[in-house]
Amino acid sequence: MSTAVLEKKETKKASEQKNVYRAPIAFYETGDSFIVLVELPGADESSVRVQLNKGVLTIEAPLKVDLPQDARATYSEIRLGDYRRTIELGDQIDEEKIEASFTAGLLKLTMPKSKTAKTRKIPIKTA
């Protein structure tokens, strides 16, 4: 098989491609918060956008690669394009207290639970 055959057949020049990929995530829950890890390899920290609107979390990160205009892929295992991920959270998050950090291509969001999302143990009285 020729190395020119790629997993995704592209006929456009590299400079014209505009692929959007679903960023992989890991979702964790603690007693007081939700933690979301998002892989964004190759993304620049200053270009990552995180928004929460009406319970929907949107993460976007453009991936800029400097290739000559006439470059044509003959083989690639690297995904070139932009990242985008949307997660519906509903009203479970205290939106005012969300914290984000970005290190080595990994975005970490720590989102405290709202009072309605926290589990409360109800004591049972004995007769």
Shape designation: elongated
Straight-line distance between termini:
78 Å
CATH topology of the domain at 14-65 and 77-112: Immunoglobulin-like
In the CATH hierarchy, the architecture of the domain at 14-65 and 77-112 is: Sandwich
Note the total helix count: 0
Give the tally of β-strands.
Answer: 8
Strand order of the largest sheet: 1-6-5-4
Mean pLDDT: 82
What's the level 1 CATH class of the domain at 14-65 and 77-112? Mainly Beta
Order of helices and strands: EEEEEEEE
Largest sheet, if any? 4 strands, mixed
Instruction: Estimate the strand proportion.
Output: 35-45%
Lay out the secondary structure:
Layout: E1 20-22, E2 25-29, E3 33-39, E4 49-53, E5 56-61, E6 82-88, E7 99-103, E8 106-112
Summarize the structure.
The chain is built from no helices and 8 strands.
Notes on the protein architecture:
With 127 residues, this protein is an all-beta fold. The protein has a domain at 14-65 and 77-112: Immunoglobulin-like, CATH 2.60.40.790. Helix content is 0%, strand content 35%. The protein is built from no helices and eight strands. The chain has strands at 20-22, 25-29, 33-39, 49-53, 56-61, 82-88, 99-103, 106-112. Strand 2 (25-29) and strand 3 (33-39) form a beta hairpin. Residues 1-17 have low confidence and may be disordered.
